[in-house]
Design goal:
The chain has 2 helices and 12 strands; from the N terminus they run H-E-E-E-E-E-E-E-E-E-E-E-E-H. By secondary structure, it is α+β, with helices and mostly antiparallel strands.
């Protein structure tokens, strides 16, 4: 009888240990998912609307912040890229400033190596320089762009960045 009671207690303890371990794994997975969601949700500005597939690869959201007006010759937007998403090759007739506010991304000017960009980085895109920017493969990235106008033009969209171009070694 004593052996049965001890056996029952051991089985109950084992059952509880396995159950707690599974619950801890579930809690850990839930925490990981919440952290991943917060990486894209924990930004200063709303995520915005989905960007057009003609000018971006992957999932990208744009939130306009300030339009061109009679008092300024630029527009401002917050752009959120999910991991692996990027803008097509493009240039700006009057230049652009990029302020990375969240995550890790990539930036490349035509003919130059890809640069890794991180929260807090500022990139000055000179006028008419062909370039692209977007999230790294493993991290979302949000940046605020201040894009200058030349007349009524602020961007010339070009061809998509190929997977081979995107996957080239970043410096």
């Amino acid at each position: 009888m004593k052996n049965i009671t001890i056996g029952f207690i051991l089985c109950a303890a084992l059952f509880l240990a396995v159950g707690c371990s599974n619950q801890q794994s579930a809690n850990t997975e839930q925490t990981k998912m919440e952290k991943a969601e917060n990486k894209t949700e924990n930004t200063i500005f709303p995520k915005g609307e989905k960007a057009p597939a003609e000018t971006f690869t992957g999932t990208v959201y744009v939130q306009p912040l300030a339009p061109k007006t009679e008092n300024n010759n630029f527009s401002i937007a917050s752009v959120t890229f999910e991991p692996g998403a990027r803008a097509n090759w493009h240039n700006h007739p009057a230049g652009q400033t990029i302020l990375v506010t969240m995550g890790k991304g990539l930036y490349q000017e035509k003919g130059k190596p890809i640069k890794t960009i991180n929260k807090g980085d500022v990139i000055l895109c000179n006028p008419d320089i062909e370039h692209w920017h977007g999230a790294s493969p493993e991290s979302p990235m949000t940046h605020v762009v201040i894009t200058n106008y030349k007349g009524d033009s602020q961007v010339n969209w070009l061809k998509p960045v190929t997977d081979e171009e995107y996957k080239a070694d970043a410096k």
